[in-house]
Amino acid sequence: MTTLIESEEHKSLREAVAAFAKTHPHTLNAEDNKRLWQEAAKLGYIGVNLPEAYGGGGAGITELALVLEELGAAGNPLLMMIVSPAICGTVIARFGTEEQKRDWLPSLADGTRLMAFGITEPDAGSNSHRITTTARRDAATGDWILTGRKVFVSGVDIADATLIVGRTEDARTGKLKPCLFIVPRDAPGFERRPIDMELNAVERQFELTLDDVRLPADALVGDEDAGLLQLFAGLNPERVMTAAFGIGMGRYALSRALDYARERTVWKTPIGAHQAIAHPLAQAHIELELARLMMQKAAHLYDAGDDIGAGEAANMAKYAAGEACVKAVDQAVHTLGGNGLTREYGLGLVTASRVARIAPVSREMILNYVSHQTLGLPKSY
Fold first, then answer.
1. Could you tell me whether strands 205-215 and 144-154 are parallel, antiparallel, or unpaired per DSSP bridges?
2. What pLDDT shows up at residue 28?
3. What is the DSSP string of 305-350?
4. Would you call 116 helix, strand, or coil by DSSP?
5. How far apart are CA 230 and CA 235, in angstroms?
6. Burial 349-378 (b: 16+ CB within 10 A, else e)
7. What is the per-residue pLDDT for 128?
8. Is the predicted pLDDT of residue 169 greater than 90, yes or no?
9. Who's near 277: CB < 8 A, 6+ residues apart?
């Protein structure tokens, strides 16, 4: 099965990405990060999931997740891969107009432009039905006018535009429905403010304010009446890619711990010979491998066009990867002892590893999803 045994093509891709990733330093500043992104894009890795007709690789989320996992395993995870090609690129490729595809997909694929994604709001959290960013039509011009706020939006300062989730009023019911809009970074009324984070990452987090941002009619992506379908077409790849992000990070931490456990000698014996060290590392490896299997299943279902099946599997994959990542990083730091907290050994992932647990949806909300969607238990909310 495709989800159990990788094809020779996938093995070759994995080996090529791993070799490429190892040629770049682990500790990246913004300039190094940009250089890595551009070089990866030139090799076709960033846009591997985007349609060939628009400059992409013509593959799927399966291949894009593989790329991100291997970059992460070498200590070089590119967070914006989750956002720009996986969420935004997928949504535009599936639902965008021909003009939107020609305008955005080639530059997203070749790395010359990036797109951020804004959905989370200060008062909405995991409840997307409480999104208050609204879009209304200007009857005179046909323009859209967006008003609202977003928080924890990654990479807005390096993105050329942000795909914003807003809500429009359904003329038939009067209820608000989600819709997606491309907002250029220099649009009047579109302001960003960096959030002061303890997380030590190259990609910064921002709060966005949209103060009557006026957009042309063609800023709307897809059908105004299919917003929820389009939204989840982007969120399922986001969960798969977050799983890849977590698995890669966990693998990197584990590899550092294994190197140390083989070399660090106490009382004439490498510490890795002791089961108190060896067994937890073996468990971490097993759990990362299990998470990868579910991630591959989710990606395979998505690429096969099974959005419903992919939704369930993607949530499970993201949960499994988040748990496995945190445990692997924690055990790696524990294996190195005090050295695990020094910059020299490159395990400053203690905070970053939590990201796969809490974003883009918390582990508790995934358990809620599985409880009532998969197991048929009543909802508590």
1. antiparallel
2. 65
3. T-HHHHHHHHHHHHHHHHHHHHHHHHHHHHHHGGGGGSGGGT-TTT
4. strand
5. 9
6. bbebbebbbebbbebebbebbeeeeeeeee
7. 62
8. no
9. 261, 271, 335
